[in-house]
Amino acid sequence: MKPSVITNVVEHDLCIGCGLCAALCPAGTLAMQWNRYGEYSPIEVSPCTTECGLCLKTCPFADHEENEDTIGRELYGGVPGIQHRSETGYYLATYVGYSERHRPTSASGGMATWLLETLLTQGVVEHVVCVAPTGGPDKLFAFCVFDTAEDVRTGAGSAYYPVEMSGVIRHILDVPGRYAITGLPCFLKAIRLAQQRNKKLRERIVVTVGLTCGQLKSRHFTDYIAALAGVQGEVTAVRYRGKSPDQPASNFYFSFTSTDGEERRIFWNEGIAEAWTNRWFTPNACNYCDDVFAECADVTCMDAWLPEFSKDSRGTSLVLVRSPLIQEVIKRGEGICLDPIAVEEVVQSQAGVVAIKRRHLAYQLDLDRMKEKKVPEKRVKPERAKNPFLRQEVVVKERMRVASRDLWINGEQDRAHLRDVMQPDLRWLATGRQISKIIAFPVGILRYIQRKVQSN
């Protein structure tokens, strides 16, 4: 039997749940469903008879000759004026700003929603594929196909919740037209791999809009934060990036609606940050992503996490453009306030994620190599971190990630118990950060003196 996405990816806990394999399987042997960790993964609903390998060829976490560099070069390498950085991939222009109309209901400055609406109203595309609330508790969010600007607005805002694309990809294959599709880096990589092998997807998906990403979360992440917020009933709706005028943009809130009839809010600094930054409820595949800026996308939108913008509670967007088509749409844009910004500042805005997907990943790969663990080939090379605190941080956060997934499936779905289990590791990280700061100060002074001496 030839290798498949089940044997080579799912069984090694490397599936991210994008759904491209299930959508494109010519024999229809794969379907997406929830696994025990509250993540999507494919299952075989009937025996594979073709053994064509298409499921592996379109999987973003299978081993390929193609990666974000080769895909980006094919898509954008010949664009006049295009430039390249290792952190961002190719880029044509970078902007900072917002859409006044879309800013209040969006996660940041509303530029992604403005762009999708504009692509529709200008006739560049006929359909938009994006994530939107479902209104049902069993699946809070899903990819949807929209044909009007009003419908697109229902998808404004972030969704820290698992979604999969098998249904909308089948729709695109069945219904002719020009589509724009939004997605996280790994999802758009899967689409690009699929386009290489499917003519209809090449012709019909004419614009891809990427979102920067540090990690995905399982549905259990939402359950945990809802419990932290005091939600008693079943969650029926959630808003992940509520803005409060008396708080900086970085201290947003989650708002839950549940069957108990009450709305509950919890701010980032009240416990969300602890679960997020320590990688609780994060799929294992996220450990092996080296794409921060959705390098396979025609345009990437993100938060402007920079000191001069992050204090503004209304939110501000950064936009990284790779496609001349998108560049023209932005130049003709109305109702937006955009200014050019240096690409270095765009990279700095995501510095924490860049560190995780470069230095942390390099050490994770080094650990996996010593354990002879099967992992995908990455552009980042395995390397033992010189900083002992970084080494221990990677180990500790991985231990917490695994524990959070296992505890929530073993009937121990109690937020207090989960935090009790995590306390030793949380205390170690806090102590390690303090020691690192103490060590870093004199080292910084010495480096400053060395630079001064050398310059003289």
Written account of the structure:
This protein has 456 residues and is of the alpha+beta class. It has 2 domains: 5-216 and 284-351, no CATH class; 219-277, no CATH class. The chain has helices at residues 5-8, 20-24, 54-57, 68-76, 111-121, 149-152, 166-174, 185-195, 199-204, 219-228, 272-277, 307-310, 324-331, 343-349, 351-370, 388-409, 415-455, and strands spanning 30-34, 40-44, 83-85, 89-91, 93-99, 127-133, 141-146, 179-183, 205-211, 235-242, 253-258, 263-267, 299-303, 317-321, 336-340. The protein has an 8-stranded mixed beta sheet with strand order 7-6-8-9-13-14-5-15, sandwiched between helices. Strands 10-11-12 form a 3-stranded antiparallel beta sheet, with helices on one face. The longest helix has 41 residues, at 415-455. The radius of gyration is 22 Å and the shape is globular. Its cofactor is FAD. InterPro entries: 4Fe4S_Fe-S-bd, 4Fe4S_Fe_S_CS, Co_F420_Hydgase/DH_bsu_N, FRHB/FDHB/HCAR-like, FrhB_FdhB_C. This is 4Fe-4S ferredoxin. One of its GO terms (molecular function) is metal ion binding. Keywords: Iron, Iron-sulfur, Metal-binding, Oxidoreductase.
